[in-house]
Design goal:
The strands form five sheets. Strands 2-1-3-4-5-6 form a six-stranded parallel sheet, sandwiched between helices. A five-stranded mixed β-barrel has the order 15-16-17-19-18. Strands 7-10-11 form a three-stranded parallel sheet, sandwiched between helices. 36% of the residues lie in helices and 21% in strands. With 457 residues, the chain is an alpha/beta fold. Helix 13 runs parallel beside helix 14. The protein binds S-adenosyl-L-homocysteine, iron/sulfur cluster (SF4) and FE3-S4 cluster. S-adenosyl-L-homocysteine binds next to strand 13.
Length: 457
């Protein structure tokens, strides 16, 4: 026991990490679990038994941010109960609410011990130690690179996220990300390749390269000159056993020529693109500071489809941006009808403190926003169902990720990112399997292995 303690390993310590918001946050949450793991904390999904609770928060819309405070209210009660039983609980608020609100969180939520921003979570062990003296806030954008100070990542599973770029310089009028995540920074090709190799060695077969503006990637290549996202993907394509690449999220204005071409030529790059357009109205796009028009987007999609005709498209939309008229909203509906999306996320505009759009006085009434959102989602749902239904009867390659819902079943994804369930032994996990799609459900496709279908015939 004494020997183990000397190594800093107390087998009783447990950490609960919960993430809200985007994939970047999910990646950060996993890395925070790695940091705590290196300190001897075992991961738990039972918050009651956790000695450290980390909420990795999202500030993108009011609802997301408010959720954190109700969760913190519950955690305060739990902390009190554990204290009565003689157990200490450290509560950490990380992520974008931490960055945006800093010390305000300490006054609004008693019970919080540490507030740490997305660029300083590698300092978590020191912050936890310091919090025994007094509550601490660290929302610096440190000069050191957190990636250089993180322990080796632990990988579970067949698919994984890999952060290649962080931050955003675009300043869309509605968005908090440039303030919570700071300026655009790209990691070097060598650092990303090393992390990707470790992921693949641990069994990962599909890597999604992530960044707030991932297609603005311009990290240093081997020769020191900046590499593009397409160049980075070509380099990663040399890793044996890596089967698939994806990337998200992109901005239309950063869809470089070589990236579009890669959709037609890179064998690992999957035919799926999440390319948020936000609105179909040029006046609204201008007010949003998106710096492109609806027709720019249409023309861009035409070029991408020329490179990869079967590409599945996805987007984000905001309805009820201040001043949006009924006619302007209908331009969004028209753009959706023109393009045809395989999936999409759509949101009611939510004013965010510190953003230019929040200052505007021409807010769209809540009821109007709700009505527009319902209409838009109706159209997007219909497009998604049609896209999935069109897969029925086709043979698609599925990367098997895990056991399925029922015994004997496995679950995986098509190149178009559709979830599929089919019968196969668990040994199929981590491999590509040709599957004939026989049915399209509301959240999943159902299929049969081509080998099985041939045998039955
Ligand atoms: N970097 C990505 C998106 C990050 S935020 C991009 O540029 O596309 C994810 C999505 O949340 C955005 O695309 C937008 O649709 C939505 N969003 C951002 N701020 C919002 C706000 N204030 N209200 C409603 N939705 C918002
Ligand atoms: Fe936000 Fe716009 Fe940057 Fe996307 S591009 S993160 S929406 S500011
Ligand atoms: Fe939310 Fe921050 Fe991501 S605000 S969407 S967690 S970058």
């Amino acid at each position: 026991m004494a020997g183990r303690r000397r190594q800093g390993i107390d087998p009783l310590k447990k950490a609960f990490v919960k993430s809200y918001g985007c994939q970047m946050n999910a990646y950060d949450a996993a890395r925070m679990a790695d940091v705590l793991g290196a300190e001897g904390y075992a991961a738990t999904d039972q918050v009651e038994e956790a000695d450290v609770v980390v909420l990795n928060t999202c500030h993108i819309r009011e609802k997301a941010a408010e959720k954190v405070y109700s969760e913190l209210g519950r955690l305060r009660v739990l902390k009190g109960e554990r204290a009565e039983a003689g157990r200490d609980t450290r509560i950490v608020v990380a992520g974008c609410v931490a960055q945006a609100e800093g010390a305000e969180i300490l006054s609004r939520a008693q019970g919080v011990d540490v507030v740490v921003g997305p660029q300083s979570y590698h300092r978590l062990p020191a912050l936890l130690a310091a919090s025994r003296e007094k509550r601490v806030v660290d929302t610096d954008f440190p000069v050191e690179d957190k990636f250089d100070h993180l322990p080796a990542r632990r990988n579970r599973g067949v698919t994984g996220f890999l952060t290649v770029q962080e931050g955003c310089d675009k300043f869309c009028a509605f968005c908090v990300v440039p303030y919570t995540r700071g300026a655009e920074v790209s990691r070097s090709v060598a650092a990303i390749r090393a992390e990707a190799e470790a992921m693949v060695a641990a069994g990962v077969r599909e890597i999604t390269l992530i960044g707030q503006n991932v297609n603005a990637y311009h990290g240093a290549g081997a020769d020191g000159a900046p590499a593009s996202l397409a160049g980075l993907m070509a380099e990663l394509g040399r890793i044996p056993d890596l089967l698939r690449l994806r990337y998200t999220t992109s901005h239309p204005n950063d869809m470089a020529e070589d990236l579009i071409a890669a959709h037609g030529s890179d064998p690992l790059l999957m035919p799926y693109l999440h390319l948020p357009v936000q609105s179909g109205s040029d006046r609204v796009l201008k007010a949003m500071n998106r710096k492109h028009t609806g027709d720019h987007y249409r023309a861009l999609i035409a070029r991408i489809r020329a490179a990869r005709p079967d590409i599945a498209l996805s987007s984000d939309f905001i309805v009820g941006f201040p001043g949006e008229t009924e006619a302007e909203f209908e331009e969004t509906m028209r753009l959706v009808a023109d393009i045809g999306f395989a999936s999409a996320f759509s949101f009611k505009y939510s004013p965010r403190p510190g953003t230019p759009a929040a200052e505007r006085e021409d807010a769209v009434p809540e009821a109007v926003k709700s009505e527009r959102l319902a209409r838009l989602q109706g159209l997007l749902d219909a497009q998604r169902h049609a896209f999935n239904a069109a897969t029925v009867g086709k043979v698609v390659e599925v990367l098997v990720e895990k056991a399925g819902r029922h015994p004997g079943q496995v679950a995986g994804k098509t190149p178009h990112l559709q979830a599929v369930q089919f019968d196969a032994p668990l040994a199929a996990i981590g491999t590509l399997v040709p599957v004939r799609i026989v049915q399209s459900g509301s959240n999943s496709l159902f299929g049969e292995r081509v080998a099985d279908a041939a045998r039955a015939a």
